[in-house]
Amino acid sequence: MPPDTRLSGTPALTLALDAASLAAALNVSLSHVRRADASGKLPRPVRIGHSVRWNCREVQAWLDAGCPDRAEWERLRGDGRC
Asked: Which residue spans within 21-65 are E strands per DSSP?
């Protein structure tokens, strides 16, 4: 059975995306991802050491919820992360 590729071709085994991978998965430019993150339009990324990553499951849930801004997403999500 092929891997789940709900997030624009991102294999299910990928747990977190860097900004370039997120841009590719969303089919937008890297600069668009950086602007959207800076303006609070994307889910909050996590830091792993010096790296910034987005949780794949959270990004998929955010997309399924209609891409609300970060404040609304965090309110909808409650106190637990996806």
From this structure: 46-48, 51-55
DSSP state of 3: P
- pLDDT per residue as tens digits for the range 23-59: 999 999 999 999 999 999 999 999 999 999 999 999 9
Extract the runs of DSSP E, i.e. beta strands, from 1-82: 16-17, 46-48, 51-55
CB atoms within 10 A of CB 66: 9
- C-alpha–C-alpha distance, residues 5 and 3, integer Å: 6
The helix/strand/coil state of 82 is coil
* Structural domain boundaries in the chain: 16-77
Q: How many residues does the chain have?
A: 82
